[in-house]
Amino acid sequence: MQVIRVIARQTLASYRKPSSIQVKETYPLPPYSTVIGMIHTACGFENYVDMDISIQGSYYSTVNEIYTRYEFKPNYYEKGRHSIKIESSTGTTGLTVGPAYIELLTNVNLIFHIKPKDENMLDTIYNGLKKPKEYLSLGRKEDLLIIEDVKVVNIEEKELEEDYVLKNDIYIPWSEETKDTLNIYGTMYNLNKEYSINPKTKLRYWKKQILTNYVAKGSKIYEDTNVNTDGEYMVYFA
Hints:
- By secondary structure, the protein is mainly beta.
- It has 2 domains: 2-65 and 100-235, Alpha-Beta Plaits; 67-99, no CATH class.
- The chain contains 3 helices and 15 strands.
- The protein has helices spanning 32-43, 122-130, 176-181, and strands spanning 2-13, 23-24, 51-58, 61-72, 84-88, 91-116, 146-154, 156-159, 164-165, 169-173, 187-197, 204-215, 220-221, 226-229, 234-235.
- The strands form 3 sheets. Strands 1, 2, 3, 4, 5, 6, 7, 10, 11 and 12 form a 10-stranded mixed sheet that branches.
- A hairpin with a 4-residue loop joins strand 14 (226-229) and strand 15 (234-235).
- It is globular.
């Protein structure tokens, strides 16, 4: 099976957890939806292209950065509470402005394997990543992504003859099958993958999420386990 492998890096990055509010916390690796969105941007896709993704990588440390947060409730204003008053045709809205913190990863290294559901899209995605339509980012718009290598690799399934120590942190989709075959555990995340757009409201909503086990570098996969590999890295598609 042929897939695309991307090796990339970022100086700083934040892949925000939707549930974090006071401090914008980050996932340790970008979610599937974030990577798929980057690929769509690189290739100039205007409609959703279905694909499976394997994500792994590492980072050096985390830091907190201050940013300006704006909070408001449409058509609600209270004198003394809101620092900015905005008049519009629908009513008066008050803004509260203040400092907040965002968590950032530093010196991020990433490895993606991309398997489009339509094999005919392989060359299109490969060429799009080699010559993207615009500069690429991952996470925030200012979190620039530097692609160091893009190549087509072969994935094969094999049985481990000896224990294997993971070279990177990695997302492993979780199911009863993986639970029975892998004796490694990490942090469980429910990550967004596929979206759809409501034709009436034009708003995006998530229609598919992946229950994923985040496994840290150095974890061990035991011998006699069936795995997918490109010869250098383990691959777990979702």
